[in-house]
Amino acid sequence: MAYLSDPKETIAVLQRYQFNFQKKFGQNFLIDGHVVDKIIAAAEITKDDVVLEIGPGIGTMTQRLCEEAGDVIAVEIDRNLIPILTGDTCKDYKNLRVINEDILKLDLRDVLFEYGFRPVKVVANLPYYITTPILMKLLEERLPVVSITVMVQKEVAERMETGPGTKDYGALSLAVQYYAEPYLAANVPPNCFMPRPNVGSAVIRLTLHDKPPVSVQDEKLMFALIRASFNQRRKTLVNGLCNAQELTVTKEQVTEALAELGFSPTVRGETLTLSDFARLADALGKMR
Predict the structure, then answer these.
(1) Which superfamily is assigned to 7-208 in CATH?
(2) CATH of 219-287, one of 1.10.8.100, 2.60.120.10, 3.40.50.11810, 1.10.10.10
(3) What pLDDT score was predicted for residue 2?
(4) For the residues 171-181, what does the mean pLDDT come to?
(5) Gyration radius of the chain's alpha carbons
(6) Taking the domains of the chain in order of start, what are their residue ranges?
(7) Cis preceding-peptide flag for 195 (omega within 30 of 0)
(8) Alpha helix ranges (H) inside 44-90
(9) What is the pLDDT of residues 103-159, one digit of tens each?
C-alpha cells in the first residue's frame, strides 16, 4: 500500500474524490512521512493501545496508527472524508472505527466504554482554531486517557510548556500543567502540510498525571482565579480578581489572602505558580 505521506498519493486521492478543503474545519493535511514517524514515536504507540485520533483527514496518520496500535478510533467532522477513509485509504484495516461526529459534542465516555475502558492514547493533528476547547475536553472529562500527542500551532505548544514570568505564561499553561506533564517533541515547518498554514507548528505530548501535582480544596475556584488573573494581565492580581464577574471576592479579602501567602498587594498573576494559585484558592475559600 502506498502511504499518503507521499504528497503524490495525497494529490491523487484529493483529485479522485474532487475534494475541496474546508476552511471552517481548519483542514491542513500532513504530507511529510518523517513528521508522521516523529508523532508515532513521541506517542509511544504499542499493540496494547487504544488510540483516539481526532481529525484523521484522508488517513495519512491513520494508516500508520492502525499498523502500530491495537485499536484505532478516528473521529472526523467532515462527512465528505468518510467515504475516502472507509472505502479507500483505510478500508483494509480491521482495527479501525471511523466516527463522523464533532469531537466537542461526542460523548467519549460512551465510546471508550465499548473498549472496556482500556487506557487510551490520543493522537491528532488538531484544527488550530479549536485546539484549546478540544484539549480541555480531553483533560477535564477525566477519561481513561494516559497521553495526548498533538500537532498544534507552535506558539500554543510553547504556551503549554512555559512557566511563570514569561510572556507566554497564562491560563492554558496552568490548566495543562495541572492535568499533565508537557513535552515539546518536534517543531514542524509549514511546508509539511497541504495547504500550507501561515504559522509554524509543533508536536507536543501531554502525559497525564495520576493525580494533580498540587492539592486544592475547590478546583473550580482555583481555575476561576486563574482565568480572572490572566483576563486582565496588566492589572494587579487584586484588581483583576475584584473585577471578575464570576468571582465574589472583595479587595480586602484578596489583599488579606495574598498577605497570608507572603505576597505584596501589587503582585501580578503571571508571577504566581500553580501551587501559589492552589494556596490562594484555599485561603479565599476559607473566607467565603
Answers:
(1) Vaccinia Virus protein VP39 (3.40.50.150)
(2) 1.10.8.100
(3) 60
(4) 97
(5) 21
(6) 7-208, 219-287
(7) yes
(8) 60-68, 82-84
(9) 999 999 999 999 998 999 999 999 888 999 999 999 999 899 999 999 999 999 999
